[in-house]
Amino acid sequence: MFKPGDIISGYKIIKPLSKGGFSQIYKASDPQGNPVILKFPDPSLIGDIATYERYRREFAIGQKLDHPAIPKAIARVESPEGEFLVLEYVEGNSLRAYISDNAPLSLKETLSIAEQLAEVLDYLHAHGVYHRDMKPENIIIGDGKIHILDFGSALLEGTRRVTWRFGGDAFGTPDYMAPEQIQGKRGDARTDIYALGIILYEMLTGAVPFHGDNALAVMNQHLTANPIPPRKLVPSIPLGVEAIILKSIRRNPDERYQSAGTLLHDLKNFENLDLSQFQLEPEPAARGMLTDRQIWVRSILVFIVFLAVAALIVLIVYLMKHR
Asked: How many independent structural domains does the chain possess?
């Protein structure tokens, strides 16, 4: 961990921002005094080929894209303190904090945010990029404008499959993970659409549709449970908007919106939708459902892996201090 005031290759650390699943993130200033983001791969994962490949891919994606809602990748720096990415700094608060403070959001505000997200996803997918970890924590909102952050789990079309040594290829955050992600598939445009549907549901109702005592229980809900229709929680939600949400989070990807552009069109025209064209009946449980015992066993295994990783980090730090 770096401290405020530390200088790394000419960049001055201002403050730590967060520690993600694969990285440590800092606000810093560049040699000209402009604010930037520094993103370091997590030291505990250094040496893992798949982790480095995802890190390299995130920079390649940032270089490939040019959209006002996507922070630019400025540089990839090798320094004695470690390799890191320099990313454009975006001012604002996370959508997570905004939802926590204001949910349920008004229909007008929700649609504004959702339409912006759908437009950015349509741009990403047109360029062969699938985010695969859409969630409020990875969305910054300021002055009504949104930015999508953290492409560390993103998939760039045409690249080879890589597997993280601790977790296979099932990346994402349980509350927002599509069933196909949970089942270990790579995901595509419809995976991001599923996550956007969950975010839409949460903005309008103040809660995500699936709950559980732990991550595995939540993932099991995505595979086996049907969401409570949002109008049962907030009756003022228009029928058309409810239909859009429920279509976005269908368990079967083939029954969801097939493109973010089509979703965007319906969001803008929710009052004129032909609801008879929407499949709104409950879905059967997906293959791969877990029993309560399986959830309990896997929770124990996840905890054991967590302890092992923590012990490894402590050992590495100890050896570095005493070598």
From this structure: 3
Q: Which candidate in 133, 175, 192, 266 is catalytic? A: 133
Could you write out the DSSP letters of every residue in 111-173? Answer: HHHHHHHHHHHHHHHHTTEE-S---GGGEEEETTEEEE---TT-EETTPPP--BTTTBT--S-
Tokens 């070598």, residue?
Answer: 323
71-96 pLDDT, tens digit each: 999 999 998 888 899 999 999 999 99
Compute the average pLDDT of residues 284-289. 67
**pLDDT tens-digit readout, 210-232:** 998 999 999 999 999 999 999 99
| CATH number of domain containing 234 | 1.10.510.10
> Whole domain around residue 319: which residue ranges?
295-323
The answer to whether residue 289 is domain-embedded is no
Q: Does residue 133 carry a catalytic annotation?
A: yes
